Amino acid sequence: MIAQYGYVALFGLLALGIVGLPVPDEILMTTVGSLASMGVLSYSMSFVVCYLGAMTGMIVSYTLGRKVGKPVLYRVGKWVKLSPSRLEKAEGWFHKYGLWTVAFGYYVPGVRHFTCYLAGVSGVGFWRYLLYAGTGALIWVFSFLTLGHLIGENAPALLNLIHKYMGISIAVLLVILGIVVYWYIRRRKKAVS
Prior knowledge:
mainly alpha, 2 domains
């Protein structure tokens, strides 16, 4: 879609992804950053379009939360990744951390989609919401676009390193995986006790 429709598709996909449709936002922005490093797209234009798309999605979500409230979210939410368990989790974060959840919820899969709705449902003032949402979107978009740009720019060198150190890379990944599994099992045992 990006190849065919360019920045219009990028804007639309990010806006819809923030509202809750299944769009891989981070992968999309990383790919766009990589394309910008190759000169296919402009980095600065991509940044502006991604930011505006994210903010449009955030404003739509906030407005829906404000107008339709939580009961409709429970009924309609299943169609846009808003399950009741995810909604409760995000609501807990929102009550605990307030609008900071909106700013940093971008980085937590499944939470990003709910925080905007919850801000609207909670009756947070629009300009105050916009300040937190805008700051979070700015950091989020910059992070993933820049990551994609750096990967795209250095892809040949990275592939060469991966090929050269494949055995070591696999060993390191297996050790990390082992630590994560051990930590998870240990945590589950503590929870059961």
